[in-house]
Amino acid sequence: MFYATARLCRVCWSATFAEQEKPAQDPTALYNLSYGLFVLSARESGKDNGCIANTCFQVANDPTKLVISVQKGNLTREMIERSGAFNVSVLTESVPFETIRNFGMQSGRDTDKLAGFETKRSYNGLVYLTEHTNAMFSCKVLERIDLGSHVLLVGEVTQSKVLGKEPSCTYAYYHKAIKPKF
Amino acid sequence: MFYATARLCRVCWSATFAEQEKPAQDPTALYNLSYGLFVLSARESGKDNGCIANTCFQVANDPTKLVISVQKGNLTREMIERSGAFNVSVLTESVPFETIRNFGMQSGRDTDKLAGFETKRSYNGLVYLTEHTNAMFSCKVLERIDLGSHVLLVGEVTQSKVLGKEPSCTYAYYHKAIKPKF
For residues A83 and A41, what is the distance between their CA atoms, to the nearest angstrom? Predict the structure, then answer.
């Protein structure tokens, strides 16, 4: 009797869930999402600072809005939120690892990250990079969405410019061709 | 006297704003942002539907959260919001234009967009594409951010899987190699 019920259940289960899958997660699936590579910059009390981001995309037209995703622990993120403005410099495939290291692997709390980089100042007073970049955007922060480890910031574009014709550096290209292999 | 004042103003203006720029916008700068290419799918009242998206990225760990951006007029967007769930199929470079046309250039209101496509059903009961894809994600909607023309949906990943090793199709690759040139 027990076996019959068990068989019945198995048949029933298999009929219901034959097409379904176990809800397992493979974290390496995340590597197949496509990202760019950017320097975000901010200015507060006369101090310029910047960080690396891989997430910047357009989310609306008229007015044009961009969204960036920034780690919470980041000083540039604090400066952006307090000042309400940020610049995006879109990095190209020629960007040296040193630029990524400078902006992405140390804190502006300890160093002047902009020292030695070729920059200009946009209308909002913030810097943007003019080397190994093909576009810049200035944005005014409109909205903040707290997502735990990161914050999404929605910005309205106040200035934008094409800076060159070299292809944008994707995050996949960075991992393939720029990041040193140890 | 008028000229002297005007000169003074010009000097003053030039001293203050010498490094600054006019806040012009170049919409082509937006072409330099990097995006992927995805099919978003949803299910409601026994009906499957899907659409093309170029914006899907990870925004947080533990739990893993993805953000998608969807046009408001979209039926898949309505189905996702009402049902609270979506799947993402990450398209690869081999994807034919026909797939983009099918999911991106007609409405599920008029046609069964899934007919003729190779799919499987994930644990949440929604379909995902198994051809010309290298990863899938199932997500439960956590948050909705209205951005005018588009809606940002934050989803918690409930299932994810690698489906192949072919490179992901970026939006730039789609424009260069897949979209027909007329």
Answer: 11
Q: Among A38, A57, A120, A128, pick the best mutation site for testing chain B contact (most B Cβ within 10 A).
A: A57
Amino acid at A18: A
Q: What is the pLDDT of residues A126-148, one digit of tens each?
A: 999 999 999 999 999 999 999 88
Give me the half-sphere count of Cα atoms (radius 13 Å) on the Cβ side of residue A127. 22
ipTM for the predicted complex? 0.83
CA–CA dist A99, A117 (Å, integer): 9
Question: What is the distance in angstroms between the Cα of A112 and the nearest Cα belonging to chain B?
Answer: 20
User: Is B33 in contact with A158 (Cβ distance < 8 A)?
Assistant: no
Alpha-carbon distance B88 to B136, whole Å?
A: 5
Task: Provide the β-strand partners of residue B145.
Answer: B152
First to last CA, chain A: 62
Stated pTM of the model: 0.84
Q: Which of B26, B32, B65, B176 should one mutate to test binding to chain A, selecting the residue with the greatest count of A CBs within 10 A?
A: B32
Q: What is the β-pairing status of strands A47-53 and A85-91?
A: unpaired
Q: List, in order of start, the domains of chain B with CATH numbers.
A: 34-178 (2.30.110.10)
- Report the residue of chain A nearest B154, measured CA to CA: A147
Whether B150 contacts A58, CB under 8 Å: no
A74-78 own/partner pairs: CB under 8 Å, 24+ apart: A75/A49, A75/A51, A75/A107, A75/A108, A75/A109, A76/A40, A76/A41, A76/A42, A76/A49, A76/A50, A76/A51, A76/A108, A77/A51, A77/A151
Tokens (6 digits) for B109? 């209101």
User: Would you say residue A77 has pLDDT above 70?
Assistant: yes
